[in-house]
Amino acid sequence: MAKLLRLPVIAVRIAPFGGWRNEVSVRPAPSATALPLRMVLFYLGGPMANLCTAAVLCAAAALTSTALTRLALFGAALFAVLLGVVNLIPGTSPRSDGRNLLRWLLAPTATLAALRAGYYQGEVSSTLRTIARGQVDDDRLGDPARDGNDPRLALAAVHRRWSTGHTQSVADLIADAERLAALARADRTDPMTAAAIGQVLTVQFGLWYLYAAVVNESPVEHPEVVEISELAQLAFHVQPHKLSARVAMSLAHLLNQRPEQARSLLLDIRPGVDPPNLCSVAFLLRAIAECYLGNHADADALTRAAGGDHPQLTQVVAAIQAADPVPPLFAPAPMADT
């Protein structure tokens, strides 16, 4: 069914003695034509295969003259029907076809938005892996709970949880971030490690704040802007010429709606020297700055230079260009009482 609907298949899992783990995983592009309808048909494919199998088994049972064979075929048909019907019940499993069908039928817009957000998080994680590469030897990384007092190992442990999906909730993500931020500010933490933590936290949350402000029309609150700026400054103060530190600081400037400063940090991007993934992010962040400065031709050129490696971040750039007026990135600070 996935092949018929031209949905990219990324995994096929078959567990003969654990049938509930059998699944075909697809990764459709959020911009694909008629995606909600295609996803509905895809999730109907499994139950329909069960019901068609049951129909074939019943037809074969009707044609046989042996009572035992007929009983076995009818039993197999009943089992196939049960598999198909139970899989259509939404509450049987978080991954059941019925649950996914309801999501695409009842809330296609929200489900499509969640798909885009998932792709965007993949781009954020890819950027974080580029920044974190080489910061710690994985052979030294033991139990993350015991590494909490070592800032460098704590950073690597948290990055591993984030990149492997072991941080299951927003609350977990925020708790990890607060612990790392406290370690970055601690007097005993060496400046290089504090800078590494500042880069990772600024990129993780700064890119998401950009997405929330532009796509979800939810500007970041003033305290978060201040927090991002402080963390980015930790990184930039130690390594002002490093591209990852400049990317972090440019994010802070963008969230503070200072596009001129953000652009000035990203004028000297070296595609043949700096990591390609980080160069693409830098090009797109500068494109965002150019959009806010009204330089749309420059923004288009920078988007092409990014090479299509970050399609969701590219869509953030396109959304800013299409907006009139451009969306605010941070909410105004609360007025002090007089």
Molecular structure report:
It contains 13 helices and 2 strands. The protein has helices spanning 35-63, 67-87, 97-106, 108-132, 151-164, 170-185, 191-214, 222-238, 243-255, 259-265, 276-292, 296-306, 311-322, and strands spanning 9-13, 23-26. The protein has a two-stranded antiparallel sheet with strand order 1-2. The longest helix is centred in the N-terminal third of the chain and has 29 residues, at 35-63. 35% of the residues are buried.
What does this entry show, briefly?
The chain is mainly α and 338 residues long.
Q: How far is the N terminus from the C terminus?
A: 66 Å
Largest sheet, strands/sense/barrel:
2 strands, antiparallel
Helix-strand pattern: EEHHHHHHHHHHHHH
What count of helical segments does DSSP give?
Answer: 13
Taken from the alpha-carbon principal axes, the silhouette is elongated
Indicate the multimeric state. Answer: single chain
Q: Find the structural class using helix and strand composition.
A: mainly alpha
Q: Beta-strand level of the residues, as a percent range? A: under 5%
Low-confidence stretches: 137-147
Query: Residue share in helices?
Result: 55-70%
Radius of gyration: 25 Å
Strand order of the largest sheet: 1-2
User: Average pLDDT, to the nearest integer?
Assistant: 86
Number of strands: 2
